[in-house]
Fold:
Amino acid sequence: MSLWSRFRRRERPTQLTDELRRRIRQSFEEAADDEEHFPSTIDPRIYHVQLILDYFGYLEGSRVLDVGCGKGRFARVLAERHPQAEIWGLDISVPMLKFAPPEVRTCAASMTELPFADAVFDAAYATESLEHAVEIPRAVAEICRVVKPGGRIVVIDKNAEQWGRLETPEWEKWFHRRELERLLRRHCREVSSRFISYWEDLPPDGLFLAWLAVK
Ligand SMILES: C[S@@+](CC[C@H](N)C(=O)[O-])C[C@H]1O[C@@H](n2cnc3c(N)ncnc32)[C@H](O)[C@@H]1O
Structure:
């Protein structure tokens, strides 16, 4: 049985009720045992990682937030590459966070209510996690709120035009380029997006998009 087959497709909810939040959290608590679909490491040559490293650039002395970090596979690479940076991983699933390496500071919370003061991070990124936030404008506003003016934000997620290509739970949402650009522009001064693939030398197949923003 595939991971999401027990979630029947119906109208996507747009409000994160307590009950829905509980179900999402529970599904990702159970998913922590599934190393195949939710790996704890990532090949740092994968372009998704390279793009974040390149876009953020010099990070020594910086504080960076991985939003919906899962097992912290991206944060692990950032912490290895930038040992003088303070890397944070936030996720709603405590069992996922248990896989994060000790050099990554973890925090169990929802990205729709980040437990951080305004403008405390130099950079933030969300890889394949915003699609689960349900209240998308609220999550985007929260990510932008905690980043300092001039700080950089990366969102990597799936393209709404490819919807149906993969099995998804009922709450998941993929994004149109302009839709997420518009949401980011409410809070950020420079916003762009582009198609990306896993490997830099292969042309993108249209599934993944990266949104880049400067607050
Ligand atoms: C597909 S996994 C991606 C994990 C990680 N970003 C990666 O690329 O390995 C999605 C993650 O988002 C987390 N998540 C879902 N909804 C969330 C929310 N409202 N706030 C914080 N994390 C959330 C899940 O627990 C899960 O770990």
About this structure: Residues 14 and 135 are 6 Å apart (CA to CA). The first strand starts at residue 63 and ends at 67. Strands lie at 63-67, 86-91, 105-108, 121-127, 147-158, 190-196, 208-214.
